[in-house]
UniProtKB/TrEMBL annotation:
Source domain of life: Eukaryota
Biological process according to GO: galactose metabolic process; positive regulation of cellular response to phosphate starvation
Cofactor: Zn(2+)
Domain Galactose-1-phosphate uridyl transferase N-terminal: 12-194
Gene Ontology terms, MF aspect: ADP binding; UDP-glucose:hexose-1-phosphate uridylyltransferase activity; zinc ion binding
Name the record gives this protein: Galactose-1-phosphate uridyl transferase N-terminal domain-containing protein
Presence of keyword Transmembrane helix: no
Annotated positions binding Zn(2+): C53, C56, H131, H182
Amino acid sequence: MASPSSTQTQSRSPEIRKDPVNNRWVIFSPARAKRPTDFKAKSPQNPNSSSSCPFCIGNEHECAPEIFRVPPDPKSDWKIRVIQNLYPALSRDIGSKKDGGPDGEMRCTGDLGRVVTGFGFHDVVIESPVHSVQLQDLEPREVGEVLLACKKRIEQIKEYDLIKYVQVFKNHGASAGASMSHSHSQLLALPVIPPTISARINSTKEYFDQTGKCCLCEVQPKDLQIDVTTHFISIVPFAATFPFEIWIIPRNHSSHFHELDNEKAVDLGGLLKLTLRKISVQLNNPPFNFMIQTAPLQAIDTQLAYIHWFLQIVPQLAGVGGFEIGTGCYINPVFSEDAAKVMREVNVPK
């Protein structure tokens, strides 16, 4: 016999919801799902062990050059290191000047379309010197220090006029793209604004033009909320693209992540830690990605009224198929309200 929660889920009709932030449609299809509480992931594979890990303390000589560390004293043990990526997607060496490359010009036109020279920065934030320590194991203040290290690096990078956007992201688990199991996040600084970012800006502008309000400043319905702190709120978005996708949003309007101050960093660190622990407990420590969705570095003042940064967490619980790739329209088997309820009720061990 099906449980009441299973029967209720299966009896709901499919819905197609419009995501006002990313301007895309999401199909909610409960018939494709088990009960929301039955979602469990296989434990992520560990791509490397502590015995062969260049990110562990004592193996610094195996890494690409260091950019800075926390604390900054090179004679003391470090807690956080920001280093260059050994296999960068873009080259920091193409442009030696802060206003461009050696010739001062980065863009040209190719026969098949526009080409932009691959200048940019690809850095790694090593979140702990200890291999077995994950981000969720750190104290809220320590998670805040990791976020502040990301902020500091963005502030350094934004001095380069050619850099338009910095994406901070974390891959946890091999199937989520992590090549190293030692806890770390990354920054990729681009000389272009990626199309997904442009689409989000255009979508939030459309909402602002119609309502005069920022769509992320709007009061989030109680049935979508998970946790609330002094400065942040965690929710499952109304039109979540993925099952158990969670956003952590500043409660007061803020466009640039790198404007985060120390107090808010600790507050965010505590909520991020809690959220990751809830995901781990409820979903069996799934592979996940998180992305800090922020404003372009050179966003103009009028855009700042409707660009609201947030931290997006996506557990890797379902694959992407041909329909999603072909249409850009995703199928989510778990209604947002059901996912939020499950996450609200997770008991996290002290």
